[in-house]
């Protein structure tokens, strides 16, 4: 689902009681499924047609999202308000209908009093090229044609350009900007239409041409880079994706792709010294920043190589207790899979999986899910689609054992066959959870299919049904994305965190028999982080990330020890234990926290928003937390990695922010690992970036893998082992 116009408004979340939410679930479900008789009966029994969910959404919102046209019509006829704005996305049912150009629903809501004053409706519809919606809006004299004209021209949609020109008097500067675009595209038909409407090619004065706009501009929460290329000006907020700027007037430019976004430069003696970013109500002020003239990649870095004194077993997601530390294993610093540089082996693994490799002694273990439909959507990158993949093909879930030194497959076992019980996100797979081993038992969680325990030779010992692990969209619980939290071995049990749409729990099972040791219900919605254990001098704590609260349990009994909030509405990162602190992050609204927690608390250890520390909070930030990749604590510093490649370094003890740097590696999903003074940062499409650990930022190498990498790598015995989309690779010094 498209959410271009939501990104700035995802900042407010006000919660109603869970009891009220559950009372309204039958009404919401009927709206989603076009169950008119149930809707009618519930309204007759007294249900308010505009009753709200936990997030302030109404049944009309859910009917629109599920494309239930008959329910939309019925609800409107019974008084449903198309202008009720939910509290999280800050969108109305009417606006939701635009995200996927649902014309019939839009028409129905217009007839029932939908608010047509929202500025982005017409530009958005023009950008999507939906001529029926554009006609409807223009017939209702909806504003926005001035911003929409450039979209229509860029898309070369002649019919929509004609409609805009016929229905609206376009401002001259917007008309002229559209002509510049059409001229650059060599579209003579559009140029004629625009000139006939009065457009002229403006003369850019010499002062504008001579102003130095290019450079880096900074503000508290981010950076903006401007560059010149082929006599055009481009802007980027992440040093990866650049947007072309179009001249509007003196020192003012708009983003060609999104004309409602403008950049206004302040100049001194022909040098731009500041820029004001505007997008509707949102404004940000950036100031030019002088950059140090130094090389990003220092080829003279000396790689210290030693002998492995003790081979590390990488036993779980990010190794032992999920810490990601491969010190003393001396993996390579540089490689190139396509050229064969430092490539020891690569082995094709069928199917899709985000599960990480685990290593025990001389063997590597990986799981996968093989679907029969080769056309099933699988899409990586930075985007915000919530709709699950509609793949009802038969799947086979397998586990493979490989020789660590050669990559040869030693054995494979089939765990399950059939149609997946739960849908997956287009960026996910049906095998996301990493196996765990202690050298005697090997436990793999295949999502909703179940939990299987093997011996180290692949012989099945026991299996267990874990129920429907239908983790998914918090806003609408029937939208499934799939499970991802990995199992954890503690003493003689395996622990599973099963946060799902309802009836979440955390439980321990006996490693030898699979029998339940303890189970604790959690009042949590879906989450995806793996639990970890803090091992203290006099007690241990099982740490879980979660939306409602970060929580600690007694890992021997399941008793809840303490809880902490607030947290993000979607939590993915795995907690990190380092020395005597516990680090937890969240990277989704309403808050994006980074916590350094002191173990030993009891009850609710939350502190007021105005404070940055407390009895059991060493330090914290309520902004700056990261979303998908888990943080890592290493050699005195805490590192977080954002989805867009921003690496942030904090002093682990004090929380002082040391640096925030863009690795320019595009999208990132895998978590950080470290070894021998280096951080290994795995991007989705641009290989692995190796960064020097410590307070001074330095990129050592950029190492191509040659295919999509979503899984976190493993480190053992001079090998860097990574599962990519089609192959698993073993990199080591040749």
UniProtKB/TrEMBL annotation:
It holds the Pfam family Ank_2. Keywords: ANK repeat, Signal. InterPro entries: Ankyrin_rpt, Ankyrin_rpt-contain_sf, PQQ_b-propeller_rpt, PQQ_rpt_dom, Quinoprotein_ADH-like_sf, WD40/YVTN_repeat-like_dom_sf. The keyword Signal applies. Coiled coil: none annotated. Residues 1-20 form the signal peptide. Residues 401-587 form the Pyrrolo-quinoline quinone repeat domain. ANK repeats lie at residues 55-87. This is Pyrrolo-quinoline quinone repeat domain-containing protein. It comes from Marinifilum breve. The lineage of its organism: Bacteria, Pseudomonadati, Bacteroidota, Bacteroidia, Marinilabiliales.
């Amino acid at each position: 689902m498209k959410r271009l116009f939501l990104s700035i408004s995802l900042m407010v979340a006000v919660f109603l009681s869970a009891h009220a939410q559950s009372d309204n679930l039958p009404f919401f479900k009927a709206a989603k499924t076009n169950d008119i008789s149930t809707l009618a009966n519930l309204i007759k029994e007294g249900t308010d047609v505009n009753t709200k969910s936990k997030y302030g959404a109404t049944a009309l919102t859910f009917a629109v999202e599920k494309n239930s046209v008959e329910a939309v019509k019925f609800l409107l006829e019974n008084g449903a308000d198309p202008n009720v704005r939910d509290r999280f996305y800050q969108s109305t049912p009417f606006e939701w209908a635009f995200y996927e150009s649902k014309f019939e629903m839009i028409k129905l809501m217009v007839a029932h009093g939908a608010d047509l004053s929202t500025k982005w409706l017409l530009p958005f519809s023009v950008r999507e090229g939906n001529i029926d919606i554009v006609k409807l809006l223009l017939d209702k004299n909806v504003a926005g044609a001035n911003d929409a004209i450039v979209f229509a021209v860029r898309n070369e949609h002649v019919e929509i350009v004609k409609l805009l020109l016929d229905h609206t008097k376009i401002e001259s500067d917007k008309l002229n900007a559209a002509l510049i675009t059409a001229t650059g595209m060599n579209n003579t038909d559009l140029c004629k239409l625009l000139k006939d409407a009065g457009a002229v090619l403006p003369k850019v004065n010499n002062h504008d041409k001579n102003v130095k706009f290019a450079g880096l501009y900074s503000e508290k929460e981010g950076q903006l880079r401007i560059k010149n290329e082929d006599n055009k000006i481009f802007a980027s907020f992440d040093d990866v994706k650049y947007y072309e700027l179009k001249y509007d007037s003196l020192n003012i430019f708009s983003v060609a792709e999104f004309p409602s976004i403008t950049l206004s430069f302040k100049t001194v003696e022909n040098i731009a010294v500041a820029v004001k970013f505007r997008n509707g109500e949102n404004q940000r002020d950036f100031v030019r920043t002088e950059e140090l003239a130094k090389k990003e990649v220092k080829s003279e870095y000396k790689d210290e190589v030693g002998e492995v004194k003790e081979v590390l077993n990488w036993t779980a997601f990010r190794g032992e207790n999920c810490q990601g530390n491969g010190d003393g294993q001396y993996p390579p610093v540089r490689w190139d899979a396509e050229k064969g540089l430092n490539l020891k082996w690569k082995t094709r693994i069928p199917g899709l999986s985000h599960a990480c490799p685990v290593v025990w002694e001389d063997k590597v273990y990986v799981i996968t899910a093989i679907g029969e439909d080769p056309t099933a959507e699988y899409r990586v990158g930075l985007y915000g689609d919530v709709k699950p993949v509609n793949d009802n093909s038969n799947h086979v879930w397998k586990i493979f054992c490989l020789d660590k030194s050669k990559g040869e497959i030693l054995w494979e076992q089939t765990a399950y066959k059939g149609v997946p019980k739960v849908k997956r996100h287009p960026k996910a797979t049906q095998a996301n959870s990493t196996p765990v081993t202690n050298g005697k038992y090997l436990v793999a969680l295949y999502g909703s299919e179940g939990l299987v325990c093997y011996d180290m030779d692949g012989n099945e010992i026991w299996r267990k049904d874990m129920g429907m692990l239908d983790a998914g969209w918090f806003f609408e619980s029937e939208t499934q994305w799939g499970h991802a939290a990995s199992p954890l071995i503690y003493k003689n049990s395996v622990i599973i965190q099963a946060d799902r749409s309802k009836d979440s729990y955390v439980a321990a099972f006996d490693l030898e028999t699979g029998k339940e040791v303890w189970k604790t219900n959690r009042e949590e919605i879906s989450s995806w982080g793996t639990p970890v254990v803090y091992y203290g001098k006099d007690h241990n704590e099982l740490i879980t990330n979660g939306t409602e609260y970060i929580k600690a349990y007694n890992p021997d009994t399941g008793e809840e020890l303490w809880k902490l909030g607030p947290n993000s509405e979607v939590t993915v990162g795995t907690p990190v234990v380092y020395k005597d602190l516990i680090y937890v992050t969240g990277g989704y609204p309403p808050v994006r926290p980074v916590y350094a927690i002191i173990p030993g608390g009891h009850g609710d250890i939350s502190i007021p928003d105005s404070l940055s520390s407390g009895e059991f909070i060493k330090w914290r930030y309520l902004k700056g937390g990261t979303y998908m990749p888990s943080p890592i604590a290493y050699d005195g510093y805490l590192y977080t990695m954002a989805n867009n490649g921003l690496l942030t370094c904090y002093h682990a003890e004090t929380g002082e922010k040391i640096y925030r740097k863009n690795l320019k590696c595009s999208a990132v999903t895998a978590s950080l690992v470290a070894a021998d003074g280096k951080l290994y940062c795995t991007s989705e499409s641009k290989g692995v970036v190796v960064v020097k650990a410590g307070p001074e930022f330095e990129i050592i190498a950029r190492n191509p893998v040659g295919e999509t990498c979503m899984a976190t790598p493993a480190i053992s015995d001079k090998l860097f082992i990574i599962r990519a989309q089609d192959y698993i690779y073993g990199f080591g010094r040749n």
